[in-house]
TrEMBL record:
The keyword Hydrolase applies. Residues 1-217 form the Calcineurin-like phosphoesterase domain. Heterodimer of SbcC and SbcD. The gene is sbcD. Belongs to the SbcD family. This is Nuclease SbcCD subunit D. NCBIfam families: sbcd.
Length: 383
């Protein structure tokens, strides 16, 4: 039996004030095409369906179109909530949709929901564990867990799993392996000092663990515990990611294979470092096409008037513009001045540092004298 594993759709997300809805529609259409071509028996979505707990109407429409199209092809869906989702909203209508093979576990009610499928090799059980945190599990199970690892283990311990048969667990947690953390990106929620991690050993016995929460595709501890990653790049720290869907195939017990199929976004996300003259001459277009989302880092030393306007002539989808030159480096050093530095330097010396940072040259003697005269008038004393 063959399944597609995806996660972290973050429908409705804005990146640097750019709406990603159009990009998400395109990538979800490609995912439907892949599911059809691969003849999958189910699509697993491991949380963070939406980017906000109260998604926009447009975001809800996009997801509705996606699951409706898959359902029309008689492809079952297995969906859990992530930390960005509202469990209650995601659960709305779930009992009705379950009758049409759209299985949703938004809220944890004390039990981990399971769906069973059959093929020639027997039964496959898909366990849907929504995003769990200690306060929720403690309330539902009347326990006193203090960490995410403890609460996940407690929830799994309450679940009767026949490990003689084939079992898939769908989860949305920050999973580590013996203290080794997954590779992360800027677009993810940061961990709470290590308290939110769940060790991979908690999932021992499951044939495959379909994880969500981390945006880069990767395994954790063993090949069959995997993050599928997000289908789109949601920060420039993900520029080098190759976004994909994961296809897993379970045959008889102990015989599982997987592969990743690369996705093709409407617009890629790239970083460019160059001078404005190089950019305007079209030199960067050889490696970064004009329809990409870009973070441009200009290395020019001279001040550029309307730099963003000039960059947009070549890259209309520029998201970020920064400078890296002597001025920015010296500004960085200026920002690192200690309170003792400020005490030891005179107003004239501090203004001189500021002038150099802004103009890359020292003040002339006449400019220094002018500043001293102005400061003396303002303070009523000599510098």
């Amino acid at each position: 039996m063959k399944f597609m594993h995806i996660s972290d759709l973050h429908i409705g997300k804005r990146v640097n004030e750019f709406s990603m809805l159009e990009d998400q529609k395109v990538i979800l259409s490609e995912i439907i095409e892949i599911a059809t071509e691969q003849e999958v028996n189910g699509v697993i979505i491991a949380g963070d369906i939406y980017d906000k707990t109260v998604p926009s109407a447009e975001a809800v429409d996009v997801f509705d179109d996606f699951i409706t199209e898959l359902s029309s092809k008689d492809i079952p869906l297995f969906i859990i909530s992530g930390n960005h989702d509202s469990p209650e909203r995601l659960d709305f209508g779930s009992r009705i949709m379950g009758k049409h093979k759209v299985h949703i576990a938004g809220q944890f009610d004390g039990e981990i929901k399971a769906v069973t499928m059959d093929d020639d090799d027997g039964k496959i059980h898909i366990y849907l564990m929504p995003y769990l945190k200690p306060a929720l599990v403690n309330r539902k199970l009347s326990i006193e867990s203090v960490s995410f690892d403890e609460c996940v283990r407690a929830a799994l311990a309450k679940t009767a799993v026949n490990f003689e048969e084939r079992n898939i667990l769908v989860a949305h947690q920050f999973v580590t392996a013996g203290g080794n953390a997954p590779e992360r990106s800027d677009s993810e929620s940061k961990s709470l000092g290590g308290m939110d991690n769940v060790d991979v050993s908690a999932f021992a016995g499951f044939d495959y663990v379909a994880l969500g929460h981390i945006h880069g595709p990767q395994q954790m501890g063993r090949e069959t515990v995997r993050y599928s990653g997000s289908p789109l790049k949601y920060s420039f720290s993900e520029c080098r990611h190759k976004k994909s869907v994961t296809i897993i195939e379970l045959k008889e017990k102990g015989n599982l294979t997987y592969k990743q199929i690369e996705l093709h976004p409407l617009r890629d996300m790239k970083e460019i470092r160059c001078s404005l003259s190089e950019l305007m001459a079209g030199k960067t277009l050889k490696t970064v096409s004009a329809d990409c989302y870009v973070h441009v880092i200009l290395t020019d030393e001279d001040e550029i008037i309307d730099a963003i306007g000039k960059v947009r002539e070549i890259y209309p989808f520029v998201m970020l513009l920064d400078f890296d030159n002597r001025r920015t480096q010296e500004n960085l050093n200026l920002n690192q001045l200690t309170g003792e530095d400020l005490k030891q330097k005179s107003p004239l010396e501090l203004f001189g540092d500021f002038y150099v940072n802004q103009n890359n040259i020292e003040m002339t003697e006449s400019q220094s004298n002018l500043f001293a005269e102005i400061a003396e008038r303002m303070e009523g004393r000599s510098l």
